[in-house]
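Posted in: Protein Modeling Q&A

I'm a second-year student putting together a small comparison for a lab meeting, and my supervisor asked me to include a predicted structure for General secretion pathway protein M. I've never done this before, so apologies if this is the wrong subforum. The sequence is pasted below exactly as I got it from our records. If anyone can share the structure token output, I'd also love a short note on what stands out.
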Amino acid sequence: MTFAVDTHFPGRDGRFVVASVLVAALAVLALVTYLLLGKLFWAQDTTASIEPRYARLLGLREVGPQVQSSLARVGADLSRYAYPATADAARIGTDMQQRIRQLAEAAGLGVAGSQILPARPHAGFTQIPLKLTVDGSLEGLRSLLAGFDRETPVILVDNLQVNASVPRVRRGQPQPQERLVGQLDLSVLHLQP
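Accepted answer (user: helix_wrangler)
Welcome! Here is the predicted structure, written out as tokens:
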């Protein structure tokens, strides 16, 4: 019984060469199969890790118009509470000082002094403080505080100290009206660029 290998490749050396070539081809095939399976498993793992992120991005794309309208509303609300980033911080302080002096005078209060304090940076905004000393009646102080609420951007009251000053009464003279002296620590917000 003769094999096909014996007739086509007579001799021991011919069969050794054929066997070596077949083993080398099988080794190369096994190596290529191993590498391709490695790439396949890597691709499946990568796809599995990307899929949730991709689904989130698709969800964000669907709600994009809602996000844009919400951002527009927040921007409009933010302009009520803070000066824009494009405004000059020094100009904001003097503007605030003038606005508050006008509000105090309109409320019937005398402004004994006002001082712009150094700005305090925070995350996303800068707080510009002002110390104000006023004197007048309780009704005038109420009117001033109510006026702060109507201002845009909003004027924040950080601290309020009020003392009553009662003038001395001389005999035979009518009781003078009680005066209040108030010290207010105020501030406004300035968005950072």
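A couple of things worth pointing out for your meeting: Residues 89-191 form a domain with the Alpha-Beta Plaits fold (CATH 3.30.70.60). The chain is about 55% helix and 25% strand.
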